[in-house]
Write a structure and sequence with these properties.
Blueprint: E1 3-8, H1 24-47, E2 52-55, H2 67-78, E3 84-86, H3 99-102, E4 109-111, E5 118-122, E6 125-129, E7 152-158, E8 160-161, E9 174-175, H4 177-182, E10 187-191, E11 197-198, E12 202-204, E13 220-226, E14 232-238, E15 244-250, H5 257-270, E16 276-282, E17 284-285, H6 293-300, E18 306-311, E19 314-315, H7 319-323, H8 328-339, H9 344-362
Length: 363
């Protein structure tokens, strides 16, 4: 009965990364990172001599996936040299236009393109799997499931463990560890949560690569061993090669680009764990400090850590110069300055109001 399998989920091939403020070359690099992760997973399966690879959904993103990526995925899994079982998730549902439907997959790859749980036999172990057939399925998969009384049964599903739902995560196909036990499963191999976690009855391997700055947990494969007695053991192994880090830089008081470059290099060198460092620029800058985020990222990054820069700083306007203009904004500045009192508090408040008003003129 002994069986060894390698479990992964949530690779999200061809993700756009727009919500992570990555675009152009940076986003393309991250998509290549995801492809490389799939190759590492397959190689790890070979190195560990496992009998089977399982994937609990979100292998790719349906709205973004290209035929080239679909072909790469099928070829890479086809070369794994062992069976592969995929349970589609909510970003890769088995819709009519999905690669799961229109492509001829290698003979060693089985796709659970059905909503109800069905058994897949591997030696003395039965894996019950189901897939998303539409993006937002929320039904409880174990609510009416007849208890399994015999054999060693595992669950493979893209689903939400409601006992440990991460903040901000959409609950899909909700279940609990107790439901897994009551249904007669020895263990649930799940996907959907991007940080790795494993307990007595449920394992999430996490996304193989972090997909956003908030993905701070482990990003692993799960080596699952079922011994001759049917006992399940799980080992989580980190697989990610990229990590996100966040930094904030206040540009207030900076007068030139070199000062900003120094600050960016310090941010880069201060957190070597982050191979993509997301930097947010804040504060007020003089008109002489022009910010070209792409040029700064190229100049201040290096071969190890890549910088992605978001500019939220604002111009600091020269109120005296603007007040001498024969324009509507010059008239506004003169009138507000004339009406302010001599108190420092009032002058500060008027100054802030003028800066905000002049910002509006710039838009």
């Amino acid at each position: 009965m002994a069986l060894r399998l390698l479990h992964f989920a949530d690779l999200h091939l061809d993700r756009s990364f727009a919500s992570e403020r990555l675009s152009g070359t940076a986003a393309s690099r991250r998509r290549e990172d995801l492809r490389a992760a799939l190759s590492r997973i397959v190689q790890r399966a070979r190195d560990e001599s496992v009998d089977l690879i399982t994937c609990a959904g979100d292998l790719f993103e349906h709205d973004q996936v290209t035929r080239d990526t679909a072909n790469f995925t099928a070829q890479t899994l086809g070369e794994a040299g062992r069976p592969v079982l995929i349970a589609p998730g909510h970003t890769d549902p088995a819709l009519p236009g999905s690669p799961y439907r229109y492509m001829r997959w290698p003979s060693n790859v089985a796709i659970a393109g059905h909503e109800g749980l069905r058994p897949y036999q591997f030696g003395g172990v039965v894996i019950w799997a189901a897939g998303f057939m539409r993006p937002g399925a929320i039904e409880a998969p174990l609510r009416d499931f007849a208890r399994l009384e015999q054999g060693v049964n595992l669950l493979l599903l893209h689903a939400s463990d409601m006992s440990s739902l991460p903040e901000g995560t959409l609950p899909l196909k909700p279940l609990t560890p107790e439901q897994v036990r009551e249904a007669g499963f020895r263990h649930g191999l799940l996907g959907h949560y991007h940080d790795a976690r494993s307990g007595e009855l449920i394992t999430y391997p996490g996304s193989p690569e972090p997909l956003r700055g908030a993905d701070a947990g482990g990003h692993c494969t799960a080596l699952v061993t079922i011994d001759d007695e049917g006992t399940v053991s799980v080992r989580l192994d980190e697989v990610a090669e990229c990590h996100f880090a966040r930094q904030t830089i206040d540009v207030t008081g900076m007068t030139g680009a070199e000062q900003l470059c120094d600050a960016l290099r310090a941010a880069r060198d201060g957190d070597r764990r982050g191979s993509v460092i997301l930097v947010t620029l804040i504060g007020r800058r003089p008109p002489s400090l022009q910010i070209d985020t792409r040029r700064l990222a190229d100049e201040c990054g290096d071969g190890i850590a890549r910088l992605e820069i978001e500019n939220r700083s604002q111009l600091s306007h020269d109120l005296e110069a603007v007040g001498q203009e024969f324009t509507s904004r010059g008239e506004m500045v003169r009138k507000l300055v004339e009406r302010q009192s001599d108190s420092a508090e009032d002058r500060e408040a008027v100054g802030r109001a003028l800066q905000l008003a002049l910002d509006a003129f710039e838009q």
